[in-house]
Description:
- By secondary structure, chain A is an alpha/beta fold.
- Chain A contains twelve helices and twelve strands.
- Chain A has two domains: about 5-105 and about 175-245, 3-Layer(aba) Sandwich (Rossmann fold), CATH 3.40.50.300; about 250-320, no CATH class.
- Chain C has a single domain (about 1-185), classed as Orthogonal Bundle (MetI-like fold), CATH 1.10.3720.10.
Amino acid sequence: MAESEYILEVKHLCQHFTSGSGKNKITVKAVEDVSFGIRHAETFGLVGESGCGKTTTGRTIIRLYDPSSGEVNFDGVNISGKMNNQLRKYLTENIAMIFQDPIESLNPKMTIQEIIGEGLKIRGVKDKAEIHRRVVEILNKVGLTDEHATRYPHEFSGGQRQRIGIARAMIIKPKMIIADEPVSALDVSIQAQVINLLNDLKEEMGLTILFIAHNLSVVKYFSDRIGVMYYGRLMEVAKGDDLYAKPLHPYTRALLSAIPEPNPITERTRQRFDYDPARDHDYSVEKPSMVEVEPDHFVYCSPSELEKYRKVIAQGAQ
Amino acid sequence: MTLILKVNDLRINFRTYGGLVQAVRGIDFELHKGETLAIVGESGSGKSVSIRAILGILSNNAIIQSGEILYDGKDLTKVSEDDFHQIRGKRIGLIFQDPLSALNPIVRIGKQITEVLRLNQKMSRKAAKAKAIELMEIVGIPDAEIRFSQYPFQFSGGMRQRIVIAIALAGDPEILICDEPTTALDVTVQAKILEQINKIKAERNLSVIFITHDLGVVANMADRVNVMYAGKIVETGTSEEIFFKPAHPYTWALLSSMPDLQTTQRLLAIPGTPPNMIYPPKGDAFAARSHYALKIDYEQEPPFFKLSDTHYAATWLLHPKAAKNRMEIPEVLRERIERMKRSGALNG
Amino acid sequence: MTNVVIGITYGAIAGYYGGTADMIMMRFTEVLEGIPYVVMTILFMMIFGTGMFAIILALTATGWVGMASMIRTQFYRFKGREYVLASRTLGASDRSLIFRHILPNAIGPIITKAMLAIPFAIFSEAFLAYIGLGIQAPEPSIGVMLSDGQKMLLQFPYQTLYPALLISLLMIAFNLFANGLRDALDPTKRGEELMDHV
Lengths: 318, 348, 198
């Protein structure tokens, strides 16, 4: 089997939620035919607006949901198949998740020590002193102190709770972290603290990160490559700088144009693009697919759109 | 420009179990006709509380300790609830952050708009319906005739917010107050809503107070900006002044802590957390988290120092005596300002 | 107490695993819910004769349904909470999730309901005795006292008054106790929390 350059490979992942039965059956295609790869120690940002399926994608990869179809490989191992104890062990040892809501993601009835230590206990670490030592170690790493260990979540601020969530994920030394909107619920000044912390940890521990967020500025700052999702599908995948300098898919362009920039001179005169799939595409004859337009830059398009995009890139290079 | 609203030394406290929370600790500002004033700050800054005071919708445990809000010859801090009915909705409209809770889920949206029209302007049913549809079209709701009889749940978040704007406009107000109206919306929807608000403001020569924590939105919407921290205004100026010549360390911190699409360096995070407003710190409230704090910042509250007729900042760094100790604005920020000016020159 | 235990287990299984298991289990309980406990009591008494045993059996048979239903609702409420998901991603076992995460948070209303089951049982028993089913004199029962007292209402009102008062007090006492217990077990009630939304 050829060795992949990617540590995480997602192939044609689909997540369909069904409700009702018979005549009333509704199927929501939350994630439809999503394929991408993340390289070792790379940060991949998954961005999109509400309902685009990015959170569902993250949760399906870590098996909080079972995929409807498709394949996910981590480090060569298939993690999307039938769940058994062995797979669960492999999964939970290698991939950890950080959640969005600082209030909801911590069990209000448990102390910080218990919350962070849970990962160790599940791994079989029984020695209480050892657990305590490692909890304190990771607390210090995320900028908290020993005495915080005996307190309860409600005694902490939003930013601190997110740090606790990060500590909980990091203590088991995973190879990859899926961060699901880790800063969206925080105040602006606190966001920077947490982003800096994640950056430091990333460098120190050589982590691979799947970063899910809706703020493109933050995602671009933090990620190496970015995938843009729209209603369950990936529209464009590229390196951060390429995505910003050469956005090809009309949705990416609409997204970029909508982001307000803290510059009063340019903001007033800015041209904003709109995205309307019915108007901007004609897929009645040609069917679209994910194509590599230039090295490491993929776009979901039909063959004639591909022609158009290739020309744009060529012109830009001149 | 004509002055239409003036706030003088407003102080508001809240009675809570933990003690008296000093939410607003003495703010002064003005609103002129036809301008958009943005109030920027994070949670705990007092921005939402101050505008609730303008509309008389503070919660029961709030006490307006002192100060005045002068509008149309009256002091809104002393106006009775009955009199407020004349003002709220009619002269001053309000748009909240969450459109879902602002709309009655079991009443058709057409009725929610016409209700306001008929209450305020004594219109007939037919006239009110026509006007409501006109308003819906102004705020950009497609197929207004059909959607007139629909319920809130049949609309998306962005559409609902447009309905809320339509309802606010139905009262034909002079002042429109928007409290983070687009924070909960997707960025593409936000762009459209902001565009709509700007358009309507221009058409009707409205005066707008816009509260947000997003500096990009401020750049888009505001003529003037008030930056608030811990219950006080720390800096005020025109949009250009605040973005290109910020003077208060907190403004610097806000501008440098959020990445824009071209940031590559390490973000300048503001250490610590906002202060406890039951025991607000002495002196400059931001001193404890600022790299630039001088000794006096911890002891005495700085007064406003004038930088221009429109630009004031409350920081001891601007005192003539501080000149030799004064540190410059962060490198990161200076570079960004240079960059912005250059791109502004290219496009302008 | 038996109905509490059975109810908890049944509801927990239905609520946690959801899906088809849930549907089948709930259909079963819905059928049972329809049967009023008085009827059940009569049935049981016909089989087991009068006395405490029959009453206990009847109350148990119908009582656990309410508890199960409530637990199930609680489980659904808490199953999707982010901290539960977080523990799942760490690899926590189902058992651990139920007992360490969901139950401690869901327990509040459950305790109250469980505690209230006691005075309810007392009340039901009194009621049954009062209407002539259940325990007869000379075995002690508040219901019997009320029933007898009723006959003497005009002359000796206190005979009804005191038992009635007693029942009320018992129920209030248990209610307060239940609330107290729930609060004592809740760490979030300790310490101050200042939530400013200014």
